[in-house]
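In this section we walk through a basic example: taking a raw amino acid sequence and producing a predicted 3D structure, encoded as discrete structure tokens. The instruction is simple. Fold the sequence below.
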Amino acid sequence: DYIGAMGNSTAFDDVPVSPDVDHFFILSFAIDANRSGIVQNGSFISYWSDGLTPESVSAIKSKHQNVKVLLSLAGYSLQVDGQSDPWIVRWYDPSDADLWIDNAVKSISALVQKYHLDGVDIDYESMDDPSNLRLFPFCIGELIKALKRNKVISVATIAPYGASAPYYRSLLRYYGDQFDYINFQFYSYSNVTNAYDYVQLYHWIAQGFDENKLMVSLEIDGTSGRGVQGAEFFKAVEEIKKTRKVPGMFLWSAEGS
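The resulting token sequence is shown next.
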């Protein structure tokens, strides 16, 4: 359940948590750029809502033993100082990959420790120059590998969609054992508005990703309401469960509900 990206006052306690379901909140987002949109070579800064404090993370985890809290890297855009249009967050190949990884490990470790977090979600959606993209799988894979090896995090997820899927498949080809769940953004397919089409899309995507990690996903109607909604979504999930294991569901996002 992504939370914190809309700049409003949504709090963890606003979201009902069932004792029967493992519930992951994903703080959105930590970004490798300053408030002016200048990239920082792997030095990530938190940009989620101010009300989602380290104290509130500790409180929700103490209240519900089945809750984990992650942070998500990148997202789609950032509202920067002095500009009316948002700045698009893009992956860029760093000139020194080892230095980027070192900076990222240090900055994300500091955020994880400050906010008492359990894991990291990778949500890079735009690529600087896809024709020359080489280092995304290596940098992200080595980052997560180091965070897990150092026992900084215990869970890692990814959030591909249609245009970014090839880069995430490459990441999983080399580092698949480091990632626990796949949030494929099915809701990004705005033309998929009924259960039948959603089921067909899920089966198609499952051919390129590990179905044991591939979750269903839903964009909450109050966000922008793309894709399948309401009863059609639950109908689709029940149909998928007849032939495939569905390990869980990703929601974008808590503020929309």
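Looking at the output, two observations stand out. The radius of gyration is 18 Å. The first strand starts at residue 2 and ends at 3. In the next section we compare this with other chains.
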